[in-house]
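Input structure tokens:
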């Protein structure tokens, strides 16, 4: 049973390596066209291998950061901690994290408004409008 799990893991790792190699090849091709340079197959393979190994290291570090904080889930704070050595990367990750947070907050607000409207409840803005119209009718 464990052998089957090990084989599956090897197959998944090979597929992931192939995907990384393909992506690196595409990126190298784009750079080659823009900068008018050539990349050999060996160079693309070396960049792919280094990229894959670095991603493995990142994954282990992220897992350790979460485990150290007694969590089983990696958070954006863990990713920021990982990127702390590169100011530009940390700035970019922080910006994207903030954008996602504000977008999620907006979606939650929309859901709240929809659910309260569906339940027949009124929002505070609707209550103010009703109160103002009642005041004008009394005058």
């Amino acid at each position: 049973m464990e052998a089957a799990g090990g084989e599956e893991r090897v197959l998944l790792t090979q597929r992931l390596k192939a995907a990384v190699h393909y992506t690196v090849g595409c990126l190298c091709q784009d750079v080659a066209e823009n900068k008018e340079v050539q990349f050999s197959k060996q160079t693309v393979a070396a960049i792919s291998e280094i990229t894959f190994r670095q991603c493995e290291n990142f994954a282990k570090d992220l897992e350790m950061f979460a485990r150290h904080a007694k969590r089983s889930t990696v958070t954006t704070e863990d990713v920021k901690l990982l990127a702390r050595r590169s100011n530009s990367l940390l700035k970019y990750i922080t910006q994207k994290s903030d954008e996602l947070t504000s977008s999620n907050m907006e979606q939650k607000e929309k859901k709240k408004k929809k659910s309260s409207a569906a339940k027949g409840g009124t929002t505070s803005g609707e209550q103010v409008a009703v109160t103002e119209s009642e005041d004008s009718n009394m005058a």
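The chain is about 85% helix and 0% strand. Confidence is low (pLDDT under 50) at residues 124-139.
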